Amino acid sequence: MKTANLLVLPGDGIGQEIAASAISVIAWFNDHRHDSISVSEDAIGGAAYDLHGTPLAEATLAKALASDCVLLGAVGGPQYARLDYASRPEAGLLGIRAGMGLFANLRPVFCFDELVEASTLRPEVVRGIDLVFVRELSSGVYFGEPRGIETLPDGSRRGVNTHAYTTAEIRRVSRVAFELARQRNSRIVSLEKSNVMEAGLLWREEVQALRDADYTDVELSHMLADNAAMQLVKNPRQFDVILTDNLFGDILSDEAAMLTGSLGMLPSASLGAEKDGGGRAALYEPIHGSAPDIAGKDLANPLAMLLSLAMALRLSLGREQDAASLEGAIRSVLAAGHRTGDLPAAHGRQVGTRGMTELVIAALDSAG
Ligand code: IPM
Ligand code: MG
Predict the structure, then answer these.
(1) Could you report the per-residue pLDDT of 322-357, keeping only the tens digit for each?
(2) Ligand 1 atom closest to Cα of 250?
(3) What architecture is domain 1-110+264-368?
């Protein structure tokens, strides 16, 4: 029997409720499978700030580094907007990404057939969408120096952030994208703004050079990020793997997520370098935020979190079959027409976070 150590960081807002949902599902797997997952919990984001005066305590990062992987809910809330950047909940998330060396963020975007009607786009445009973003996660304008707000001699102010990428940063995330593309349809579109940005031009050249050196079997094309924003709503099915930087990946993955009907459906994996003994640092989280407006009301859709757990089972814990059973259970609940409030009502029950979790567990039960 294998025991994996999973650190759960619920964070803020609905993070608490969806983390509880994941923990219930883990308990089900522990009861019904040979291998087990040992869960420990800690605070991040605003919750950590309230406890320790910092959004990411050193001890929490140490626990994250020592665990097999991390499952995170969401961070943020309006009560923290007055804090300086270093104290804000978001700094906890950026801090754990940097501290764990997570440079590749995988954001799969797929449309369950059961939900094609939930999209704001026509069903024939979204049916069968199956693409994945590989977003660079630990550099670019999110981390570049110099940064800050300065006061100029005339008393007006100037805000500065720096967008910069090195060869090594571009290549390590590109390698993840090429490897992933090989497991899919071997097609990558790489996005930047090389028409106006030097760092974008370097991005394009380095991705192409890596492809020509090591991945000639993968079809690579380049697209300007603004054009990609348009193509994503025009014809999203043209994409297989989308490789892009931290900021464009942030923006375009929200856009793409909404094609599928609800932000509440999409998981993500953030990966670090492969370790010598095998495995890699990894953190799994839904791509939606903390939704303070519905927090604590048992309204949040836990499915993005449960799909993130499925990714953890598959990518970090080597439990492909269990990942597939969890995804299958979710699909069958949707097929039965059960929905949380973020999705248009269907022929089944309207449920909350706990109700949806119970339905998924019941579906796991009936599948064995
Ligand atoms: C995301 C989020 C984060 C980001 C925020 C919460 C810091 O929007 O994971 O997409 O900008 O990376
Ligand atoms: Mg985002």
Answers:
(1) 999 999 999 999 999 999 999 988 899 999 999 999
(2) 10
(3) 3-Layer(aba) Sandwich (3.40)
